[in-house]
């Protein structure tokens, strides 16, 4: 049985494990002051073209979103998120649990547009009886595999600025977005156009870890206190530092995401060729073919994947996720198993 | 200029002020242990037919909703509310600020139905990645003047029980609901069918104050601690006690609400007679006629009321609110001012 | 039985009730925008000599402390308070409940001194593993009746500035402090030397209400949102406005506190004359004589007051509190009842 | 330069890294449902003699303490902790940040005794104006290296039960406590005598991770929601599972702690032999010798350790910490460097 359910079913890329082994008995300062964390931050600052950025490594995406967003908001301020946004659907009320409301936006493709933001701002003017929109949360790649284009991100950033809103990007699948064939954004763009964003490690070959970036170090200069207070400061910070140092050495981060995307595109192409339709188009590592129920059932004898949405009585859209670790041989086998 | 904007533009019913004057120099125990608070609770327990209920007087509706709901929920549990519910639209994220998510339900008439609840429960099964629905928040009368019927409340209560959900009723305009011509519920029913509810004073003749009722005293027996901690315990609790003692002496609570409703119905009838249509039908103290813009403008030279919603380029639905203090003579004058 | 237990056993000063009666049927805008609240703020701004101050009327002292302090602090920042401070001993963890730690300081007289602050700052340098002291909370008069002198407050304010700390004064008994025979501070001084403070109404003749003042309006310009969110915004804000308008008309606020203090001093003098000692010296409205247990018992047949602290097997320090409403005739009677 | 500053300067025990390597490409279910987490929980349940315990692996000690304690408390309930307790001194207000007060207890040896608890309970009876003590937090080994004896823990547990208090043990250095020469407690005792406790991995050879144990699974059956909500649920839970599976295979957990303790005892013995005194006696992996300042300075040219407390002008107590990874050869060298 091969798992196409998610992109975190394996451990870490071997280069990361090797580095951990090689440096295991070096004594390092704790709590993120180790030399690997320092070097990893330096590498990321170079990659994003921002020598002044504040960077923090955090174990999980939920913790990253929660801390980054809550530190940027007062209690009467709210986050705008797509209805399909991770903080809205799959983080068990993490944002609310620290005191802030999420204002969800209905979208067709997981992406927020300036007009959505303006509409929400207009609906929240009855001060002080309503929350004040203050931050826009976007994901790239989105939860359904779509990506933001440069023109869109520029427009969004401008709209945020005009409306006194902060822009935050969840990059759990940042690598997949960057390596999409139709992508025209770079990490430098993210750093220039958002207030804060994170580069996801867990879903791109790390054992754990997300790299949170405040593009302006003055945004929340005392974030280290918050990290410690909310249990996000690892005594052995070297563990996180090594993940990102390796990922940002010799373009490993990009290569891993590129592999995941290529495997997905190969699968997508195969479904298309065999005449299947798709619930959603995606150029990243998620594919959403619509399958007759019996096809889905047959494929699932050897492959596990998610039933995403019932389309009609006979058909179901499924989600197939590939990763940095998906062997091409398995993909080829799977493709052969897809009936015409 | 007469204000039809809300039902809290005046002070208190004179009987309440008189009682305050008469008892002003009596020395009373503080923090809700005064004899007026004790007597008022006794009167309410009798009125709701529940001698064991725990009752607390709280200065504002937002504070009441916030404390009552947050004490009933763990941080991963969520409230189901109509999209038009007061906690969702006009309390500045009060519920979220203490850590819980609200799950909004689209409704046409401000009322939640069992099928809404079931749908939400089905959409929240991916434990532990999603919040757990745990409490249903309803308002009666609703924010748009509609009321729950007995059959509806019974069905809702049953659905809550089946789905392990608590039922909480916001009674900011409870009097108006109870005195509606088509109402078939009593305070005894509220006490029997909900887990907790509040009887609103502020919008029915009190200077301030809402009476929060836990129908089973074991629901949150240490609520007094929470009251004090969140600044809701008045040193001079007599102030709140006297409001409710007077309101529940000689049926004053019902009479005041009845007057407000009658004034509203008179206005509604007048609009109807003169050929106007309504955005919403309501049998309580809010009327929502659709007015040509120039009519609205004319009326607003002497009367203030809210523009509720644009209907088309030429017409606007407005909201006219009456209260316990609205003089019938003013209503008659207003009616005369409505053009045919 | 006469109650000397606290200073909130009666209702309100008759002038306040009269004003409420006189204006009861005027229609006023809700939520603090009424003309009485506006006028009361104007009167207070004049009294404190600060035309730009932001002022908010809040129902209780706990709510005032909680909202004012929490809005000034980030979650890793802490409040320094005397161990006897109200937020530390009698507010059920209100500050912590909104997320901040209190660092208590042992004092002999309820007053914090610069050396206390400096010591605490030195003990909190292991960033980010410890909280960051950020605000100093003082009460004037203190919970045990002592007051700050001008020289002390100047020194404290300077120490706060040097250490990047905010200074907040709880003025639940501000009137009593200002009218103490040895007082040399004015409300103008409070406004000049603190960042925020409140003028207590509840313990000085109001039915309810504290006037929170941010001396610099830029300190937290969106405080109105917070008020609404935490249930502190009264629909009938006129109730609070009238309290303070009357208190700050014709020096009523000062006269009421002066009366309370005089009654206390009379009692204190009587105990002294009859040879009793005191646990604490106080020039405000609290007296702490040390009584043989049988004297305490005898007095308590007709007067109720608090046993404050056991001194030895035979003696107890008690607390006698007077108020704006304490009749001089009762005080004279009480004095006669004190045995030699 | 060798670091004696803490017990988390190295990576992980090689057996753990090896297991990670060996299993790296196995596809595992995410979020703690992997086979290693399941096996590790099974091993721990056996070790603690409690087949029904609920066990959760959490990345850091602060996160563990914070989530475990906050889920057990309502907002008006407080934690009793030694003044030297980790939650009180080194977690940046983590407990308060989620809403609860800590009541600190002055101790001489870091250990809480029944009389401390009883005193605090007596000081918190003025309901509802004070917080309600509800949980006792202890650490074993304590922050200063002392350990609880069986008789003490039994007495503490009984006192808690009598006073309706929960007992929670922070076991960041549980291994060091268990392997102390004077220890008479077992993990089974901890499970029998506390409500919840954690077995620390980070300070005993794991890369990261603490094993939180609710001895009665009904204590907080929905803790998984909280884990996810507060960002504590690792997508690759296998990482945590493997740490604990290895630690509880072939007694590795005990052996590592035993080694750390033996190294510390060797150092302690050396200081004693050479005539030095100690600030604190400890039988675990921390040693607190009192050194003339020039000795401290000399030793610190090759060894790093913490200055713990000034004793007088010429002498300082220092803290030397050993770990599972401290080589005996380094210890021998260090001992030779200690002057007579």
From TrEMBL, chains A, B, C, D:
Q: Name one GO molecular function term.
A: lyase activity
As cofactor, the record names: pyridoxal 5'-phosphate
Q: Which residues form the Aromatic amino acid beta-eliminating lyase/threonine aldolase domain?
A: 13-225
Instruction: Name the domain of life this protein comes from.
Output: Bacteria
The alphabetical list of record keywords is: Pyridoxal phosphate
Q: Which GO terms describe its biological process?
A: amino acid metabolic process
Q: Which InterPro entries match?
A: ArAA_b-elim_lyase/Thr_aldolase, PyrdxlP-dep_Trfase, PyrdxlP-dep_Trfase_major, PyrdxlP-dep_Trfase_small
Family, according to the entry, reads as follows: Belongs to the threonine aldolase family.
Q: What is this protein called?
A: L-threonine aldolase
What species was this sequence derived from?
Sphingobacterium psychroaquaticum
